[in-house]
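Write out structure tokens for Proline--tRNA ligase.
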Amino acid sequence: MRATQFFVSTLKDAPSDAEIVSHKLMMRAGLIKKLSAGIYNYMPMGLRVIRKIEGIIRDEMNRAGAVELAMPVVQPAELWQETGRFDKMGDELLRLKDRHGRDFVLQPTAEEVVTDIVRQEIRSYRQLPKNLYQIQTKFRDERRPRFGVMRGREFTMKDAYSFHTSFDDLKREYQNMFDTYSRIFTRLGLEFRAVAADTGAIGGTGSHEFHVIAETGEDALAYCPDSDFAANVELAEALAPTTTRLAPQAALTKVHTPGAKTIDELAAFLKIPAAQTLKSVIVDGDEGIPVLLLLRGDHELNEVKAGKLAGVLSPLRFSTPATIEQAFGAAPGSLGPVGYKGRVYIDRSAAVLSDVVIGANENDYHFTGANIGRDFPEPAVADIRNAVAGDPSPDGKGKLEICRGIEVGHIFQLRTRYSEAMGCKFIGEDGKEQVMEMGCYGVGVTRIMGAAIEQNFDERGIIWPDSIAPFTVVLCPMGWSRSEAVRDTANKLYSELQALGIDVLLDDRDERPGAMFADWELIGVPHRVVIGDRGLKENVLEYQGRRDAEATKVPVNEIASFVK
Ligand code: ATP
Ligand code: MG
Ligand code: MG
Ligand code: MG
């Protein structure tokens, strides 16, 4: 590619709404251009990065035996009604109507559509397993779109869905995808960590997130340096014994609440409105392990909290913004938190609430009037980050450490949540009809572009890993219009490198060296070759890697080996 043909558009300053390094640099390097909140043009330079990321993902998915297809961005609401998500999903799901008044959604993900395809196309165990994936536009009406394409509203995701005759086979494919994701992020040249993300027991966890390690990451991760324990912090906290064993410290009012299995029933027993109960409610224990589930008082959970909450309350995936009611509604049979066995969710903001209803850790009883801090040990409401750092690792093999990460991938054992609801069945070897087991596997393609920058930059700009750089090498001729020798050498080198399959850009804009170098350093091209009259007299060029402090003189005919 020649720079004059291409589209190079750099900025001296980042727009004021860019908060973090990757967003600023992406804007300044002309990779993306904002159209609306969380909605960006992928400019030619940025699109080259995205295509390379997609290429690696596609390559590894194909190698793993997955099959590519593409599903529509605009999807009929009927399918989403079948699984109940049309109503339950909350505002992250963008709903629209066509000219006939029919409801549609913009896909935030595609479980419904892929399950609909498979239930029509696959009848027999002989056609299973299948893993279908797409690399497609997604839309989520995020409450707080920010950080450029890292948390966009429109973004590109690779989403894969696998279908199986048995749970064992799902687990096999899950491991296959786990390994595939590890290969993908290794090839992308990123430092990453896979963490357990389910509330299930360690060892048999049904969900993992892949995080790019970065200080600016929105998520906290807990891991044990002395073992292979690694979990997102919600899970680590749920598993860490020190944060779960809470006991009431003071005499509280114990109320008999026989048979109260829902929030409404509980509220009825306590003679308080359900809405008020929901503000500060909390919940029940199981055998010996008290459970304290605190909710924000503002009646709204942000999506992360809703996700955590639903993870606690049900095996369902629930990853959209939701009101508390919606989150509870996501639990099967609307069992709600009452009577739920097990885990902890702690939110500091709840510490200020008083008169909390809590589980009495005894069947059919609740305490009212609990005051967090007074009746429960303070560590229970400590900041999540501090609550687990230094805690014993749940596997007992050492202490936990905390780091921050950017979620770039998520794999999940869906089991029969969607296949059951949508009647996605097959005839087994024994001739009997059975519901398929399912898994789903997502990668945030456009988010990776930002995450990679968060990990690789300096004061001059981006430093792309070779594997995803928009161009691998840039040729910078000094005096393009002035020197025929420079032009000839540059053109020749350009053709040679192209013939070798190297992604090369020739900067024929006739810019001053300072401006030219600044552009390519900002854009982050990993290899630069300067062609100048002085060097050519000695038959040398100047090579400089993006991380090198100085240039190296390299004989003209050896340059290819430097940039490969
Ligand atoms: P987050 O916790 O960051 O909101 P999520 O858990 O809601 O992400 P998933 O439903 O697991 O996201 O989707 C799979 C992947 O899609 C995520 O791991 C992430 O890389 C990417 N992704 C999700 N939301 C966005 C977004 N708003 N912008 C860009 N990428 C996203
Ligand atoms: Mg989300
Ligand atoms: Mg998440
Ligand atoms: Mg996720």
